What does this fold into?
Amino acid sequence: MNTTYDVKFSQVQQRSNRGMAVYVARWRVAGKEKSKSFRTKGLANAFMSDLRQAAKAGEEFDVATGLPVSMLEQEAAGPSFLQFAQAYVLRRWDLSAARTRETDAYALLSLVPALVADARAVPRQKRCARCCEFTPCCRRSGVRT
It folds into this structure.
């Protein structure tokens, strides 16, 4: 994570988006322009106030996101989505019919690429993934790919 103390704040600007007013908070971090849109001027001013308070408190700002370190999302402590999906299929395996298992696997396979951050963890072929990723280990020996 690349951080810096070089932060400059601008005023909240009003833009019209298809007839509706949109308020844009603008600031610069390490010379890079950052902005965030809000529906009301109060929300934009509150966000800018939070940024100013963080800068006044001496917090570092992340160059990539433009946010103070305290505002960055903390890493999830729970299982990844792929681990959750595998546990879900394993829990339902013995109680589900064969066609239901197949439907569950296809439904989860459509979500995995969107929700798994590591591209190497995403299976490349659906048929192989259905057999390998969403079939419990004790059942894999009889599965054809």
About this structure: The chain has two domains: 3-71, 81-142. The helical segments are 41-56, 81-92, 98-115, 126-132.
